[in-house]
Amino acid sequence: MKSKITKSRAAILVSQNMPLEIDIIDFPEKLEFGQVIVKVEVSGICGSQIGEIDGHKGQDKFLPHLLGHEGCGRVIQIGEGVNTVKEGDKVVLHWKAGAGIQSNTPKYLWRGKTLNAGWITTFNDYAIISENRCTKIPIDTDSTVASLMGCAITTGFGVIENNAKLKMGICCDFWIRRNRLKYDTSCKVIICLANNCS
Ligand SMILES: [Zn+2]
Fold first, then answer.
1. How many angstroms separate the Cα of 136 from the Cα of each of 86, 92, 98, 177?
2. Ligand 1 centroid to 45 CA: how many Å?
C-alpha cells in the first residue's frame, strides 16, 4: 500500500553527546503489513532517551536513529492487517506491546542512507508505528496527559505493582519525577506513599 506521507521533519540522534539534528527524512514508498502512520501531536521524553543521547546507556550501535517512545497523535493511514485503529482515531503511542500486529520496523531514509527506527518513534511530526504500539483513546482526552500513558504512567504502575507491591484498595500519592540524573534503565519514577490520605 502506497504511503500517503513521503517526508517528515524529525529529530535525529546522529552522535552521542551531541545535539539532535532536526532535518527532513524520507518515508518508505509503501506502508507494510501492520504499520500505522500517525501525526504526532505530543511527545514526551524520558530517561531512556536522555540516556541514549548522553551515552549513559553505552555505545550506540544503531546510529543514526530516531527516538521517542511515548506520545499522542492522530492516525493518518493504516496498513494491511490493521484492525484495532482506523484513520482519524486519536491514539496513545507506547513502547510496551499491546493489541494488534507487531510489524516490521520502518525503513526511513535520511540523506539517501538508512535511518534506523524502532516500532515506535515520537520525535518526528509523522511516524510509522507498529499497530501494537498504538492504542485508540477517546477523542477528547488531553493529549499531554495521554502522552504520559506511553511510558511514565505505565512504568509507574510497574513500580507500584512490582516494587511497592501495593494491593487493590490501598490509597497512595503517586508522583512522577523526570530529570537528568545519570541512570541506565528506563524512566525514573519516584513514588511517595501516604498512609492516611482521605
Ligand atoms: Zn520511557
1. 9, 7, 11, 26
2. 7
